[in-house]
Write a structure and sequence with these properties.
Elements: H1 2-23, E1 37-38, E2 41-42, H2 47-54, E3 59-61, E4 66-69, E5 73-77, E6 86-91, H3 109-116, E7 121-124, E8 129-134, E9 142-149, E10 152-160
Antiparallel strand pairs: 1-2, 3-4, 4-5, 5-6, 6-10, 7-8, 8-9, 9-10
């Protein structure tokens, strides 16, 4: 009996660190798939979908990997194919485009906090602060980030880490 208890304790001691690693496998967030949209598109949408919504881009860079609409919407894709998914969307000016919850560039930080609460990650820089909110569950690799300076949202980005 004593030998079985010792063996059981050794198994628990050996496998507990691995169980804890699972808790740190990725960011823990609270945003839903419905909230992880920017400018009416989500990171899982395709290049063809973006062109259907916004038409042909004003500028194309990096052999079709980056689309620029106007002077304030940038969409990056994983590859050049029409069915390529988006990995990054960014709004850099007050152009009327918003998150799914209606947050826009030019709004006060209080609006963002009212909609999303406290950020999952906060990064302060010399010219502003980035507030990042991660998706929950299957959406954990997606994040919505707000660059804020002087209490005003200056840009918004939706990113999908592959």
């Amino acid at each position: 009996m004593k030998g079985k208890i010792v063996a059981l304790l050794l198994v628990i001691i050996c496998f507990c660190p691995f169980a804890k690693l699972d808790a740190f496998a990725g960011p823990v967030g609270h945003l839903t798939a419905a909230q992880l949209k920017l400018a009416g598109i989500s990171a899982t949408d395709t290049k063809a979908f973006v062109e259907n919504v916004y038409g042909k881009p004003a500028k194309v860079f990096r052999q079709g990997l980056v689309y620029i609409y106007g002077d304030s919407l940038r969409v990056k894709f994983f590859d050049q194919k029409a069915n390529s998914q988006i990995w990054d969307i960014k709004i850099i000016a007050d152009n009327g485009l918003a998150t799914a919850d209606g947050v826009k560039v030019g709004m006060k930080i209080d609006v963002m906090k009212q909609k999303y609460g406290e950020p999952d990650r906060l990064k302060k820089g010399t010219k502003g602060t980035v507030y990042t909110y991660h998706g929950a569950g299957k959406e954990a690799l997606k994040s919505l980030s707000f660059y804020v300076r002087d209490g005003i949202i200056r840009s918004i980005a939706l990113h999908w880490a592959d």
